């Protein structure tokens, strides 16, 4: 089969926002404890922060990390996690039926974020708490000093305010599983009042209202409409969450997950713009896709089946090559919407459905899904080009006909470099893609790397014993002729082609 696309700097989606390469650390399972934080580990620094994990997070290219939840935040008291370690209470976390030691909290996270070089995205609890506690956290975190809570922070050894700019107004408040779950009206009012108060403290804060927790929940789109009716002029973004897996073994549809993500983004943009039109507002609400990934949710028995334990092994999915191809395709979708999606967070960073795995006291390694993220974060630069592929279609049970080729490209005006990211969703045949480069003369191929999810490689995984079994391989299948580049994409594969 053949497909084609044109790379033309005259046709742009928008500037690539580096915040699209975000991740997520929740107090859940081993994401924090024995994930990023493990005092006594041979690779831990003086504060118990695992430097092997920090190194991998930097290599992954993560720019921003959302914290501390997730469902966890909806029953969290941030005060429990600050101050002398010996005084911190041990609590029950009702989100994940776990024991929370509170050995790690806001100030430890900010130390970790600073050392790792990532921007923090902080969530407030709007489940069991409200405006007052959000304001207390904001004063503690961001006020310089001279007030009760800012001086409390200083007494905890943090002289300078943290200056956290990006805040989530709760988490998945539409979900009945959420502690303090609310109707759209209830949440919309609470989010609006919390946002108004927070912007009184600092009008430059960027605030994210909760959208739907998935596109299948009954209230999808009507939830966003109601919440935005209340919050439109007070917030900057609305959140989206989505997890993908092969349902009943339907891998063809799974490989087309990017099409579902694409439609979800379109639906939320349409809903937000509808409210903007009703309100006669000049403002455009941006999107924060602050939880996305492959997650084999069907393997998770549910919270009610969990025992009260500290840092249990929860949803530690081991990803194969096809999962990595899907992760690459989801990143392509996010880039294709760089004009409206300002923030995105792969959920999560370590151990919990994560690119980075760790063993307590032992090594840290890269899962298969690490690779497409790291390469996209490293090489996608500058402007996202509006590529309009012409592609054969494949039939899927869940999404009907979808194009076999899913692609995007970035163009760095300063260096002139181009990076093309492409997925062949077809599991049965390779795809020959012709790229018309005539609007960008003089480019030569600097490399083509592939994650090939076809044949026996489909089910290959990386483990502690074999951490580098799956990694992208450099291939030499490109040809250039008359300003046209021809690239071979194996079945069920993700590719990156760099042109300099
Ligand atoms: O990332 C795991 C969980 O998925 C988060 O806590 C929650 O927000 C979502 O349902």
Note the overall shape.
globular
> How many structural domains in the coordinates?
2
Please tell me the overall pLDDT.
97
CATH superfamily of the largest domain: Glycosidases
Adjacency order of strands in the biggest sheet: 3-4-7-8-9-10-11-13
* Ligands and ions found: alpha-L-arabinofuranose
Text of the CATH class of the largest domain: Alpha Beta
Number of strands: 26
Structural class: alpha/beta
Helix content: 10-25%
Estimated share of beta-strand residues:
25-35%
What is the rounded distance between the termini? 27 Å
Q: Helix count? A: 10
* CATH-level-2 architecture of the largest domain: Alpha-Beta Barrel
* CATH third-tier fold name of the largest domain: TIM Barrel
Instruction: Give Rg in angstroms.
Output: 22 Å
Low-confidence stretches: none
Major sheet: size, sense and barrel closure?
Answer: 8 strands, parallel, barrel
Key attributes of the depicted protein:
single chain, 500 residues, alpha/beta, Immunoglobulin-like, TIM Barrel, 2 domains, 8-stranded parallel β-barrel, 7-stranded antiparallel sheet, 26 strands, binds alpha-L-arabinofuranose, carbohydrate metabolism
């Amino acid at each position: 089969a053949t497909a084609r696309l044109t790379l033309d700097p005259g046709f742009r989606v928008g500037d690539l926002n580096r915040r699209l390469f975000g991740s997520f650390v929740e107090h859940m399972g081993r994401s924090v404890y024995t994930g990023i934080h493990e005092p006594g580990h041979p690779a831990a620094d003086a504060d118990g922060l695992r430097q092997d994990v920090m190194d991998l997070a930097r290599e992954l290219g993560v720019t921003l990390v959302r914290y501390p939840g997730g469902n966890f935040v909806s029953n969290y008291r941030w005060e429990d996690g600050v101050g002398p370690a010996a005084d911190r209470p041990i609590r029950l976390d009702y989100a994940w039926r776990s024991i929370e030691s509170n050995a790690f909290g806001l100030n430890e996270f900010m130390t970790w974020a600073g050392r790792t070089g990532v921007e923090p995205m902080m969530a407030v609890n709007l489940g069991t708490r409200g405006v007052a506690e959000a304001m207390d956290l904001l004063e503690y975190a961001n006020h310089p000093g001279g007030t009760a809570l800012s001086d409390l922070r200083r007494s905890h050894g943090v002289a300078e305010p943290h200056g956290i700019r990006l805040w989530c107004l709760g988490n998945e408040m539409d979900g009945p599983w959420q502690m303090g779950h609310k109707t759209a009206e209830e949440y919309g009012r609470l989010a609006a009042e919390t946002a108004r108060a927070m912007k009184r403290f600092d009008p430059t804060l960027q605030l994210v209202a909760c959208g739907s927790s998935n596109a299948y929940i009954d209230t999808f789109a009507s939830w966003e409409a109601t919440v935005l009716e209340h919050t439109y002029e007070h917030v900057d973004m609305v959140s989206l969450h989505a997890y993908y897996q092969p349902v009943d073994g339907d891998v063809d549809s799974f490989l087309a997950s990017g099409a579902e993500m694409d439609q979800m983004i379109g639906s939320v943009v349409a809903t937000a713009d509808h409210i903007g039109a009703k309100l006669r507002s000049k403002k455009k609400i941006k999107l924060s896709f602050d939880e996305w990934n492959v997650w084999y949710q069907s393997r998770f028995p549910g919270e009610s089946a969990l025992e009260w334990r500290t840092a249990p092994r929860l949803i530690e999915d081991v990803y194969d090559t096809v999962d990595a191809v899907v992760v690459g395709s989801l990143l392509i979708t996010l880039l294709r919407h760089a004009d409206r999606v300002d923030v995105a967070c792969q959920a999560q960073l370590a151990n919990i459905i994560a690119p980075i795995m760790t063993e307590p006291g032992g090594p840290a390694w890269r899962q298969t899904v690490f690779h497409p993220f790291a390469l996209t974060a490293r090489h996608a630069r500058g402007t996202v080009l509006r590529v309009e592929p012409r592609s054969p279609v494949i039939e899927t049970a869940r999404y009907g006909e979808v194009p076999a080729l899913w692609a995007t490209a970035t163009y760095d005006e300063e260096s002139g470099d181009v990076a093309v990211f492409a997925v062949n969703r077809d599991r049965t045949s390779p795809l020959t893609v012709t790229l018309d480069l005539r609007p960008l003369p003089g480019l030569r191929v600097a490399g083509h790397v592939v994650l090939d999810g076809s044949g026996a490689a489909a089910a290959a995984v990386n483990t502690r014993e074999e951490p580098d079994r799956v990694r992208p391989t450099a291939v030499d299948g490109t040809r250039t002729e008359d300003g046209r580049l021809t690239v071979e994409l194996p079945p069920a594969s993700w590719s990156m082609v760099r042109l300099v």
